[in-house]
Amino acid sequence: MNPYAALLISVALCGVVATLMLVMSWLLGPKRPTEVKLQIFETGNPPIGSLRGHRFPVKFYLVAILFVVFDIEVVFMYPWAVAYRGLGWFGLAEMAVFVGILAVGLAYVWRVGALDWD
Amino acid sequence: MILFWIVAIISVASALTVVLHRNPVYSALALVVALFQVAVVFVVMQAHLIALLQVIVYAGAIVVLFLFVIMLLSLEPDVPRPGRYGMRAGAITLAAFLGIELAAAALASQPSPDTLLPPDYGSTKQVAERLFTTHLLPFELTSVLLLAAVIGAVVLARRRA
Amino acid sequence: MDVIIVVAKALVALVICLQVTVLLLWVERKGSALIQDRVGANRANLFGGLLPFNLGIVNTFIADPVKLFHKEDIVPAEADQFLHWLAPWLAVFPLFLTFAVIPFGDVLVLGGREINLQAVELGGGLLFVLAMVSLGVYGVIVGGWASNSRYALLGGVRGSAQMVSYEVGMGLALVSVALTYGTLDLQTINREQGALMWGFLPAWGVFYQPIAFVLFFIAGMAESKRAPFDLPEAESELVAGFQTEYSGSKMSMFMMADFIEVAIVAALVTTLFFGGWQIPYLQRDGFHFPGGFGFAVPSLAVTVLQIVSFLVKLFVFCWFQILIRWSLPRLRYDQLMSLGWKRLLPVALANVVVTAVLVLALEGWTT
């Protein structure tokens, strides 16, 4: 059977089970909303200031960008790994160039200190 | 055929959500849905490896990046602004041109004859073999492109420091 | 008929996933109690004292989940309603799906049919697992954002930054596995580990890729935000991190996601590095010991034995993760990130290069 049809069946099954779990406490639990319960929990004190406009450290953005770049690198390596035996030493050289260039990038990021304090 | 229509409807609906919704986080999530539809289309076209890569890279990494940026900037949900009609008129005109062009291209193209695809088509091994032999230069250039992206991002992000 | 078989397999995979998760909750509680020299949860009774003894295991299996599901589902007024509902679903769904591609046995010969015991037989199984892990980040991000609470958002962003950093490491560790076996299909990788090295040593992945095993294990634990990498849910520091504003079954879903990931890491480690359902010297028709002798075993018994072996190995690695959790102190966030980017990533890259060189140099190194 087409594996993707099996995948679809699995997706449907997992989706249904996940949804069931999600609504269970909504179905089964009591519903007594009070003012205090609906507030956001900030160790007992009322939350100060709005969340919008709150500045976030830029290093998170850097981590995400680095992730995208290295994820793409990893993703290129998979087809290479599968076809590797057919590509021989030349294949190794190709990938070495690819990894080398990106390793330069990693080294730069490391030296500049973008990987610190995170 | 049914699958195509389902995918098409969901794609268009989610793409419209991306563009039209006020809350940017919803737009990003709708983008994920749209990207999944693209992955399904890839599977139908026998491009199995690309479908998986689409999910890993696009839906799994790039939209995460988008979400980080949205949260970083604490983007407010969009409010409709009065005025600015000039921009809107310009945008609609350009979009109309694009639409007409796409329609013309689609209608003018001939459906490709039903060739028998080799059994390995689109599989990881086959794509890999092509990628690393015939299309080696684009592959190596990609690494340079990624390097540029990394350095650019670091330079931009640390400008304030 | 085909459909029924697939549905049955998918159900089995899901059931394994759910049961292991529930069991892990109990094992975690009792195991941590064992390690910390205390008794652990052992009070559970019916109707306030019907039975004259306490049923500890009932506590975790039944009482705890039932209690959580019956809690009131509180959504803060300021929170984004739709996203608040969506986040736990997003956290759990990709993890359920990952189990669908993990082979839990070889083949089941039923009425002349050979049923491959893998719910979804994807040729690119390894990449599919990576894709599902990538999707797991969304539960954390959306969960943190949806609550519209400072603690939650901070926890969410930090958690997802952590997950994302170790995803690269995981991916790279698995590249060397793909290099070794030349395929991405989990069942094929599993089958190839049935071979024997030098005539007597089972060709398990860990012998070929010890470094990748260590890397993947560490990255997997960090990915599932499990101690010593559990800062996003640092129970004493950020309240409950991105899970702060969740109650009832939504919170239990986040907790479940934690345990399911433990099970997934364990399942992947067994499949890729420890032979999965392979029992050394056992093949489809019986045992073949290296000395030359062997005895036949009926194929149904072989299948059952192999499934049991898979589950046993799964538990061993789940237990190992629990052991590590309760033995090591928590890493600070910057230590965590620096481990991921500065140590794991270069080592994984080096491992890939070395593996590649070795594969070519010892042409025909694996089957």
CATH superfamily of the largest domain in chain B: NADH-ubiquinone/plastoquinone oxidoreductase chain 6, subunit NuoJ
Number of domains of chain B: 2
Residue runs with pLDDT of under 50 for 5 or more positions of chain B: none
Based on the structure given, which CATH architecture of the largest domain in chain B is correct?
Up-down Bundle
Indicate the multimeric state. Answer: heterotrimer
Order of helices and strands of chain C: HHHEEHHHEEHHHEEEHH
Largest interface: A-C, 65 and 86 residues
**SSE class of chain B:** mainly alpha
> Helix amount of chain C, in percent?
55-70%
The total of beta strands of chain C comes to 7
What is the CATH domain class of the largest domain in chain B?
Answer: Mainly Alpha
Q: Given the C-alpha coordinates, what overall shape of chain B results?
A: globular
The overall pLDDT of chain B, averaged over residues, is 82
Q: Structural class, from secondary structure content of chain C?
A: mainly alpha
Number of helices, counting only DSSP H or I runs of 4 residues or more of chain B: 6
Helix tally of chain C equals 11
Rg of chain B, alpha carbons: 20 Å
Total discrete domains of chain C:
1
Description:
The complex is a heterotrimer of chains A (118), B (161) and C (367). Chain A is built from two helices and no strands. Helices cover 68% and strands 0% of the residues of chain A. The mean pLDDT of chain A is 79. By secondary structure, chain A is mainly α. Chain A has helices at 3-28, 59-112. With 161 residues, chain B is mostly helical. Chain B has two domains: 1-77, Up-down Bundle (Four Helix Bundle (Hemerythrin (Met), subunit A)); 120-161. The longest helix of chain B is centred in the middle third of the chain and has 26 residues, at 48-73. Chain C is mostly helical. Chain C has one domain. Chain C is globular and about 70 Å long. Classes of the chains: A mainly alpha (118), B mainly alpha (161), C mainly alpha (367). Chains in contact: A-B, A-C, B-C.
How would you summarize what this structure contains?
The complex is a heterotrimer of chains A (118), B (161) and C (367). With 118 residues, chain A is mainly α.
